[in-house]
Design brief:
Elements: H1 2-17, E1 42-47, E2 60-61, E3 64-65, H2 82-91, E4 105-112, H3 116-119, H4 126-136, E5 145-151, H5 153-157, H6 162-173, E6 183-190, H7 195-205, E7 210-216, E8 230-232, E9 235-240, H8 243-252, H9 258-271, H10 280-300
Parallel strand pairs: 1-4, 1-6, 4-5, 6-7, 7-9
Antiparallel strand pairs: 2-3, 8-9
Helix pairs in contact: 2-9, 6-7, 8-9, 8-10, 9-10
């Protein structure tokens, strides 16, 4: 109950911000006065890859992580419900209406561009196919992973530079809509590779176009603590353990509806169908399922 109250408080503060733009050192002036009704903008999800879309397995070489730290899932495993979660965020425009042509997911990754031949996210990859399939189930063709902005060997070696590189790549991405009249963005990353630093910088510098940040809590130890949500410039940062938990928070923030939440629940359950119920994967999912069902009940009242 306390968790619901916290999220509800965030939602009220967040909604009170509306679409009023803040002017910062890097931001653009507002396109609409406070008295004008803003247009319904498309939502483009921006995502990291390793430990966000799929597990790194916690593999490292000479102490340097090869993508992340998550040891709960095997290297290369897709997280249950991840494609459906990002699809539902992409389907809902800024006014809550649904679009039949959701933007593809933009990728900000620390993977080195110098190794692109080996690490490139190709259209034929299992990950790309899984995302396209999620769209096709709803009758949406050619949805999936879109532009990919890579890191470099420098950030792979000097880990502390990864957050800055992802933020600078975000600034490159938003040049596609320099007026801010088409897109708003939701960033999804994880807690293992300075995605939090990148996400917080996005909210500090561009709160008028970044609606929320979601961070997947990963660890090289079992049962990591999930931090409470926080606000930066009136925009929420949500920490989550499963994509069902993330979808519950997104529903509370009116970033998707309860039917969308149910589709994420169904996909996650199906993904773990053959996993033993004694697994800690089910423990995490069952915990977040309780939150999801409470959210659906509240939204039905």
């Amino acid at each position: 109950m306390m968790k619901i109250t916290i999220i509800a408080s965030i939602f009220l503060v967040w909604m009170s911000e509306g679409f009023i733009c803040r002017v910062t050192s890097r931001s653009r002036p507002p396109l609409f006065s406070q008295s004008e009704e803003p247009p319904a903008l498309y939502i483009q999800v921006i995502s990291d890859v390793d430990d966000t879309l799929k597990s790194s397995g916690g593999v490292n070489v000479a102490g340097v992580a090869l993508g992340g730290i998550d040891v709960q899932y095997e290297r290369g495993d897709f997280y249950p419900g991840v494609a459906e979660f990002m699809l539902e965020l992409s389907r809902h425009r800024s006014d809550g209406s649904a679009t039949a042509t959701p933007p593809k997911v933009a990728i900000l990754t620390a993977r080195a561009e110098e190794f692109k031949v080996a690490l490139e996210l190709k259209e034929t990859s299992k990950l790309s196919i899984a995302f396209r399939s999620a769209g096709e189930k709803l009758g949406i063709q050619n949805w999936g992973l879109g532009p990919v902005l890579y890191g470099s060997v420098a950030e792979w070696i000097v880990q502390d530079k990864k957050g800055l590189r992802k933020f600078s790549n975000f600034e490159r991405l938003i040049q596609q809509d320099i007026t801010g009249s088409i897109f708003q963005y939701i960033y999804v990353g994880d807690t293992g590779e300075l995605d939090q630093e990148a996400g917080e910088t996005m909210l500090r510098e561009y709160p008028e176009v970044v609606r929320a940040v979601f961070l997947h809590v990963v660890s090289d130890e079992p049962n990591p603590i999930v931090p409470p949500p926080k606000l930066i410039n009136g925009r929420p940062i949500i920490f989550f353990r499963t994509y069902v938990g993330a979808a519950a928070r997104a529903t509370q923030l009116q970033l998707m509806d309860k039917a969308s939440l149910q589709r994420v629940i169904d996909a996650a359950n199906q993904k773990l169908d053959e996993v033993p119920k004694s697994s800690d994967k089910w423990l995490d999912l069952d915990h977040d399922l309780q939150e999801a069902y409470r959210t659906k009940q509240i939204n039905s009242k």
